[in-house]
Amino acid sequence: MKHYLAIDIGGTAIKYGLISETGDLLEKEEMATEAYKGGPSILEKVKGLVKTYQDQMDLAGVAISSAGMVNPDEGEIFYAGPQIPNYAGTQFKKEIEETFGLPCEVENDVNCAGLAEAISGSAKDYPVALCLTIGTGIGGCLLFNSQVFHGSSHSACEVGYLHLSDGQFQDLASTTALVQEVVLAYGDDISQWDGRRIFEQAKAGDAICIAAISKQVDYLGQGIANICYVVNPNVVVLGGGIMAQKDYLADKLKTALDSYLVSSLAKKTQLKFASHGNNAGILGAYYHFKQKNERSCSFITLEKIENNLASS
C-alpha cells in the first residue's frame, strides 16, 4: 500500500501525518514551527521529517500545505508576512525532490482547507464553493467542481484585503479584531483575552462580549455578501477556531449575510461550517498532491462549470 507524508505548516505549529492511498489519515503529530527562526529553519524541519519517514518506509510522495502565498506549479513560497522572516523564496518542491527523489506538491494552507471541505467535507458536491478561514486574519478559497481557482498570478481570493466602509475585511471581522474590541472596552491587557473566553463570557451574559461578537458578525455578513455578489457560490463554508462556536453563531451569521444579499441570492446561498477542523490542512495537501499527479483528476473547464451550474 502506498503512503504519503502530508505536512501542514502554520505560524505556530507544523502538523504532519501519514495518509494511505485511500485517503485515510493513519497517524498525526505536530511540532513547534518556531517561525521567528525564519524560512531556512522551517525548510530544514520539513526535510528532517521527510528523512525520518523515508528511513522507515517507502513513501509515494510529500504533500505540503503552507502559510503564505504559494506558486503551486513551482512549489515555492512567493510572499509571506513578517511573522515568518525570509520565508518568501523557499522552494519546498525543488528541495524535497532533489534531496529525496520523491514527488512533492505545495499549496497554500487556506486553499488546502477549502479543498478538503470540497472533496470530503461540508462543500462536497457543490459546483461553486467559497471557503473562508477566520482567525488571525481572514483567508479565502474559491473552488469550481472541487478545483481551486488560483487566478492569473496564484493570488485569487485574498479576501482579507477587501475594503469595507470602515477598513479592510480582516481588520474588522477576524478573531484578532474581535479580541481587540473586547480588550479596548475593558481596558485589559490583550494577554487576558482570546476568542474562547469571549464566547464563554457572552454565553454567560457579558454585554461587552455579546456586543463585540455582534459587531464582528455584522462585518462578516458585509464581507461575505460582497464576495457572493461577485462569484455567486452555491455554498459558503466557514472555518477557523471561533467557528467551533457553531451553535452560537449559525443563526446570527445567516441573518447578517441575508441582510446584505438581495433575496433571490440569499435563497440560493447556503451557509455551512467546516467539518475537518485541525485535519483540514493535512487532508487538503494530500488531495492537492493527488490532483496534480493523477490523470483522473482533470483540470476544470468553463464548460464543466456551466453544465454543473445549469443542473444545480
TrEMBL record:
<protein>
    <submittedName>
        <fullName>Glucose kinase</fullName>
    </submittedName>
</protein>
<keyword id="KW-0418">Kinase</keyword>
<comment type="similarity">
    <text>Belongs to the ROK (NagC/XylR) family.</text>
</comment>
<dbReference type="Pfam" id="PF00480">
    <property type="entry name" value="ROK"/>
</dbReference>
<keyword id="KW-0808">Transferase</keyword>
<dbReference type="InterPro" id="IPR043129">
    <property type="entry name" value="ATPase_NBD"/>
</dbReference>
<dbReference type="GO" id="GO:0016301">
    <property type="term" value="F:kinase activity"/>
</dbReference>
<dbReference type="InterPro" id="IPR000600">
    <property type="entry name" value="ROK"/>
</dbReference>
